[in-house]
Amino acid sequence: MKKAALVLLVLFGLGLTGVWANKTKVEIKAPAEVKAGTEVTITLNVIHKGNSRAHHTDWVYLTVNGKEVKRWEYDKSALPSGENFTVEFKLTAGEELVIKAEGNCNLHGSAGSANFTVKVTK
Q1: Which of 10, 44, 64, 76 is the most buried (most CB within 10 A)?
Q2: What percent of the chain has pLDDT over 70?
Q3: Is the CA virtual torsion 86, 89, 94, 99 positive or negative?
């Protein structure tokens, strides 16, 4: 009887994990338009439920014009600062900036990439 109750408790607990679990999502914040030669700050807002040794965002990457310019990596001994956190990257705009960013949950994966374009004027 105790064994059956324990099995039911474990199965119930496993069933609920999906209710609170989510994939890591990234939002990009940057100016819509800048003049050439301007320093641009790209802010990534990383959104995820869970920041423990067992369940956390394990990486976030940023590409600009198809080239990876920054990757932040996390693990159980170096967790992100919180469930939801922000990272920044700065660069000088010389041409249109096509920005892509994505994050990943170590258990549930990614919600997909975010995209943003900064128009650069002369």
Answers
A1: 44
A2: 83
A3: negative
- pTM greater than 0.85: no
Q: What is the reported pLDDT for 72?
A: 98
Q: Which residues contact 47 (CB under 8 A, 6 or more apart)?
A: 24, 25, 26, 27, 83, 84
Q: What is the Cα–Cα distance from 78 to 85, expressed in whole angstroms?
A: 14
Determine, yes or no, domain membership for 66: yes
| Residue 62 belongs to domain spanning | 22-121
Most distant CA atoms of the chain, gap in Å: 76
Instruction: For 29-59, write each residue's pLDDT tens digit.
Output: 999 999 999 999 999 999 999 899 999 999 9
Query: Considering its fold, how many domains does the chain have in total?
Result: 1
14 in any annotated domain? no
